[in-house]
Amino acid sequence: MSFNLVSDFEDMVADFYGVPYAIATDSCTHAIELCMRLDKPNWVSFPTHTYISIPFLGHKLGIGWNWKQEKWEQWYNIGNTRIIDAAVFWEQGGYIPRTLMCLSFQFQKHLSIGRAGMILTDDKKAFESLSKMVYDGRHRASPWRKQNISQIGYHYYMTPESANIGINKFSSAMKKEPILYGWKDYPDLSKMEVFNEKKNFKARPAN
């Protein structure tokens, strides 16, 4: 299969949400991680009720972070950033301008294709950087051995096989009503043992 399928799927999703650029990833968590690596915030805040991998990013990236109490519906902003966790958000024309909006296509999501995600943006420079970051710092269009790679990248790209599933399922996803997820669908992570003050993953306020 060709990576042209990934480009086709990116264009399909971008058109649906009403945004100029889309970067396919292998998961929503990695999409958010790439955005955080791009913008390099010195601290962030995560909602107490979300998927558990999200606050782990604070520890992984060595960023100061804290909890925030938020009764969010369908999407939320990661505090002190332009990053939107829109893993459960499905709405035509729903892109929020001037953000990095991260989607999930995990098996429980509205458009279910397995382990996959995407970043939506109207920022051309961010698009150009993220497009390389997701592919190990290289351009997708040509063999990496022939490129003079100039930036650090990560092995977080979507496979053509996953993109093909998304393309084939897209029309049926357009026809059904999405489930409206929100904060009540997630446990209070701040009460979990792993985030206890004595653990490695404790909240670390900004200096």
Question: What's the short story on this structure?
Answer:
With 207 residues, the chain is of the alpha/beta class. It is built from five helices and seven strands. It has helices at residues 4-17, 28-39, 53-61, 124-133, 160-175, and strands spanning 21-25, 43-47, 64-68, 76-77, 83-85, 100-104, 117-121.
Q: What sort of overall outline do the alpha carbons produce when their principal axes are compared? A: globular
Structural class designation: alpha/beta
CATH superfamily: Type I PLP-dependent aspartate aminotransferase-like (Major domain)
Name the CATH architecture.
Answer: 3-Layer(aba) Sandwich
> Which sequence of SSEs, written as H and E, runs from N to C?
HEHEHEEEEEHH
Work out the helix count. Answer: 5
Unreliable stretches, pLDDT < 50, 5 or more residues? Answer: none
Q: Give the terminus-to-terminus CA distance.
A: 48 Å
* Count of distinct strands: 7
> Which strand-content bin applies to the residues?
5-15%
Rg from C-alpha positions? 17 Å
